[in-house]
Amino acid sequence: MKIAIVCYPTFGGSGVVATELGIALANRGHEVHFITYRQPVRLELLGNRVHFHEVNVPEYPLFKYQPYELALSSKLVDTIKQYNIDVLHVHYAIPHAYAGYMAKKMLAEENIFIPMITTLHGTDITLVGSHPFYKPAVTFSINNSDVVTSVSESLKQQTLEIFDVKKEIAVVPNFIDKKKYHSSFTDCQRSLMAKDDEKIITHISNFRKVKRIPDVVKIFYKIQESISAKLIMVGEGPEKVKAEKLCRSLGIAEKVVFLGNSNEIDRILCFSDLFLLPSETESFGLAALEAMVNKVPVISSNTGGIPEVNKQGITGFLSEIGDIDDMALNALKILKNEETLDTFKTNAYNTALNFDILSVLPLYEDIYQKAYEQRFNKADY
Ligand code: GMT
To answer: Which residues line the pocket of ligand 1, CB cutoff 6 A?
Structure first.
């Protein structure tokens, strides 16, 4: 099939999922067209089956806000016509589903019928989309998508609670590609990061408030009081400077490494012993799943879709949001005993395999095929 994918090109989970999905679809023989304002960060190889179309928004001084949705919908119309696209898959409702709907309507005027699949990722529903300023438009975009998917059962329930949704929502979880992790990395250079007797604790995120970055630092503070440990913080975002300051004021700055954004997260996770994800909310927690497939147990908050991924007492532990004492205690339970650590590592890896792309990709392919077959259903236009 010819599939157009709209996403954010950034390090955020929705962009990562959209990009990895597009690459996997191309490897299965589909032709994939990414349409966004910059080449997605995880998209390295373009070729016959993977295309990238940049959305440009010309600046005009009259506008206080430049109309990205307008530019995106026009780009969608042009690309869908030029490449005879079969289905449009938009990731993150705002404003992608809204722009996609407009493109669909414009194309229908020319007797081109394109089904639109909208994938809800989390903050588009829980944080941004539910704001009264956006809610009517988000509700409309969801109800006017041909298919709606959400990345967890929890996000599906939240969407149904917050919005007046008349559409079925199919749950299609985030995924990993187990093939990538078959052989252990030969260049897993643990010694560059820590001494042999030090445990390596990792956090990866976009350092937004929702990630509760100060909790990450405080949990680590408590861990390092009992055992020798290092904290690796990967990512960039508004809470980073505050976190650096907190490390200095707690006197642990030399034990914490801030690495910034990285495309090499598997290289970092391969020498990690524990992953911290104390988020306020998390629709799924792709970062936790990526840790688990690298055999890294997870200490997380018990919120949103995280319990669908991180299994209590098996792949890690879950605590109430903000309960840093419990999180630190649980971390030590895992880290203090090598045998326990090994068991959790193995469990984390085995559980992550339930989310292998080979089981998730056919779900999307099936959705595309059905939506394509029903594209002439005029009631939808
Ligand atoms: O976590 C973020 O802030 C990024 C955000 C995004 O939209 O890119 O991630 C969301 O989508 C991911 C992929 O589906 C999920 O794994 C994350 O849990 C979700 N983040 C939140 O719900 C906070």
So the answer is: 12-15, 17, 92, 121-123, 151, 174, 206, 208, 210, 281-286
